[in-house]
Structure formats: structure tokens, C-alpha cells
Amino acid sequence: MDTQTTQETKRVLLAAPRGYCAGVDRAVVTVEKALELYGAPVYVRKEIVHNKHVVDTLRRRGAVFVEETDEVPEGATVIFSAHGVAPIVHEEAKARSLKSIDATCPLVTKVHREAVRFADDDYDILLIGHEGHEEVVGTAGEAPEHVILVDGPEGVKDVEVRDPEKVVWLSQTTLSVDETMETVRLLREKFPSLQDPPSDDICYATQNRQLAVKQMAPELDLMLVVGSRNSSNSVRLVEVALEHGARDGYLVDYAAELQDEWFEGVETVGVSSGASVPEILVRDVLDDLAARGYLDVDVFTAAEEKMLFQLPGELRRDLRASGMDDTSTEIRHDAGALP
Ligand code: SF4
């Protein structure tokens, strides 16, 4: 144990909301129910959600994760991940006679529809997002002739459009709210007629998780975010904490990754988790912190969440036909409670 802090001063601020969002819950339950209904193997294109623990658990239950549809045997069932796919992927699946179930988060689908609509009106669409991220690839694929990717504020200087009077911006759902607003400010300096999206593209879950971390950050010596490195919203939470006053911060997949040296002189530890992280992994981190003397845990609530999505229509139909429960996902934890 370090010598600079005592048991009495050590405490944890646990962010709420944290962890599973409605889109991730729906996608994971889609794979679970598909396995129950059709039996293993069920193929999943890309990681169903960006979390190592979730993917490994589903793999053990019979899900087979592939990169592309041509790895799926003809006629088999394939599930598309929460991040969404370009229309060409649906066409490829059809050409291989695959039974496809689309677990794209409805809030990602909303952005796809916006892209199609603005492309139909012949706008140039400035899509703010991370190059190569699956969601961005999927959204751009809806209107490849119209979409120009803007990867953060530093990407603005290279953007060129056909008609500066007909430009709109859209975004990936899991970006940093503050950084995106800065990108938009710079884009608007360059293109004063830039139109806003019809509604926020950065989703409620991303915004709420960032809000909680932002509000907690000034009190924190150390911020721990549970999440995987390929999870955009999880990575953003560490950045937001550091930008808003946390002295130090790390992203960990598992409690076992916590390092003793991170805790030197640390009194207050903040804990949150990305939108694809099951609560059990947060519990493990809290147990580890308790063993280090951080026994006093206060929940820091920034927002309430009640969002729930129905399962994909094609799966619901099959579940009903088999007499199985086709109801939607369940709220797996009360975002304001201790795990
Ligand atoms: S993070 Fe947002 S957009 Fe992504 S799956 Fe969750 S609710 Fe949907």
C-alpha cells in the first residue's frame, strides 16, 4: 500500500449512466436469441459490439465472427453488427442466399437515412468520424459519391466541396461532443452556409456517458474506464476525463490490467464503462479497488436512461413463428445503481 493516502481518504466515484446502451443490448440479445432459435453456428459479420469479453462469450456459445460475408457458407444465417453496414453488404449477402439479420443500432440507421436523404438532394455530406471505423464505412457506403470524411478538427483544412451553399455535416454516433463541435465550428468558418443535421447524430448514450465523466473529472486523481481499445466511445471517455481535470486516466478491458503504480497518492478514483461493456467487468474493477482500500463508493448520476429498442424485425418474426419470446431487450442494470 502506498504511504501518501489513507484508507479514510480513499474513495470511488462511479459514473451513471455507464455501460450497456440500448443499441448494444439489442445487438447482443439478437445473437443470443439467434443461437437459441437457429442453433450454432450463427455467423456474425465483424464484432457484434466492440468489446472483447462480449465477443469471446458469444464465440464460446457458437457464434462465428467473420470479417466479410464471403466467409459465410451459402444459405447460412449472418448477423450484421450494431455499427451498421453499407448497402453493398446487404447485396452481397443476398447474392450468397444468406439469411441476414440486421442488428444495426436504430440510431446508426437514422444517420444512414439522413445521408441518403441529403445525397438525394445533391448535397455534399461532411461526415465527421474516424477513418476506417466500421460505422463510418457503413454510413459513407450509403452515398459514396456525396460523402467526404472529416476526421476531427485537423481534417478541416483539406475539405473541398462542389458547392459551398449545399453542404451539410453528419457524424459518427460515438464521438467526443466537444471535439465534434470544434470541428463543426471550423467547418462553418470555411463554409458559412453549412447545414446542421436534422437532430443530434452523437447518440444519447455517448452524450450521457461523457456528461457524467466530464462532471466528475475535476474531483478525480485517477479515471478508470472499462472498455476495449477498438471501442470509440470508451476511448473518448478517457480523453474527456483528462480534458476536464482528471489527473490521470486509463482504459482497461479487465480488472487484471490495473497497475499498482497508477494508484500512488491517489485519493479519488473515477470509474465508468463504455456503451458495450457488461456490468460484471465494472464489478470486477470495483472489487479490485476495494482490495486496494477504495471501499467508499458513491454513484455520480448525470442523467437517467430509459431507452429500449425492439429486436430486429426478421428475428422477431421467426421467434414468434416458433412460439418463442420475441419481446425486446431487457434493461440489464439500473444505470444509477451499484453493480
Ligand atoms: S453507442 Fe449509441 S449509436 Fe452506438 S449502439 Fe449504443 S445507442 Fe446505438
From TrEMBL:
Renumbered residue ranges of the record's region Disordered: 320-339
The EC number(s) this enzyme carries: 1.17.7.4
One of the protein's GO biological processes: isopentenyl diphosphate biosynthetic process, methylerythritol 4-phosphate pathway
GO molecular function: 4 iron, 4 sulfur cluster binding; 4-hydroxy-3-methylbut-2-enyl diphosphate reductase activity; metal ion binding
InterPro entries, alphabetized: LytB/IspH (IPR003451)
Cofactor binding notes: Binds 1 [4Fe-4S] cluster per subunit.
Record-listed dimethylallyl diphosphate binding positions: 50, 83, 133, 231-233, 276
Cofactor: [4Fe-4S] cluster
Pathway of action: Isoprenoid biosynthesis; isopentenyl diphosphate biosynthesis via DXP pathway; isopentenyl diphosphate from 1-deoxy-D-xylulose 5-phosphate: step 6/6; Isoprenoid biosynthesis; dimethylallyl diphosphate biosynthesis; dimethylallyl diphosphate from (2E)-4-hydroxy-3-methylbutenyl diphosphate: step 1/1
Keywords, in A-Z order: 4Fe-4S, Iron, Iron-sulfur, Isoprene biosynthesis, Metal-binding, Oxidoreductase
Reaction equations catalysed: isopentenyl diphosphate + 2 oxidized [2Fe-2S]-[ferredoxin] + H2O = (2E)-4-hydroxy-3-methylbut-2-enyl diphosphate + 2 reduced [2Fe-2S]-[ferredoxin] + 2 H(+); dimethylallyl diphosphate + 2 oxidized [2Fe-2S]-[ferredoxin] + H2O = (2E)-4-hydroxy-3-methylbut-2-enyl diphosphate + 2 reduced [2Fe-2S]-[ferredoxin] + 2 H(+)
Residues binding isopentenyl diphosphate: 50, 83, 133, 231-233, 276
Binding site for [4Fe-4S] cluster: 21, 105, 203
Binding site for (2E)-4-hydroxy-3-methylbut-2-enyl diphosphate: 50, 83, 133, 173, 231-233, 276
Residues of the active site: 135
Keyword Cell membrane: no
Function, in words: Catalyzes the conversion of 1-hydroxy-2-methyl-2-(E)-butenyl 4-diphosphate (HMBPP) into a mixture of isopentenyl diphosphate (IPP) and dimethylallyl diphosphate (DMAPP). Acts in the terminal step of the DOXP/MEP pathway for isoprenoid precursor biosynthesis.
UniProt-listed PANTHER family: 4-HYDROXY-3-METHYLBUT-2-ENYL DIPHOSPHATE REDUCTASE (PTHR30426)
Record-stated family: Belongs to the IspH family.
Designated name of the protein: 4-hydroxy-3-methylbut-2-enyl diphosphate reductase
Organism field: Kytococcus sedentarius (strain ATCC 14392 / DSM 20547 / JCM 11482 / CCUG 33030 / NBRC 15357 / NCTC 11040 / CCM 314 / 541) (Micrococcus sedentarius)
Gene transcribed to yield this protein: ispH
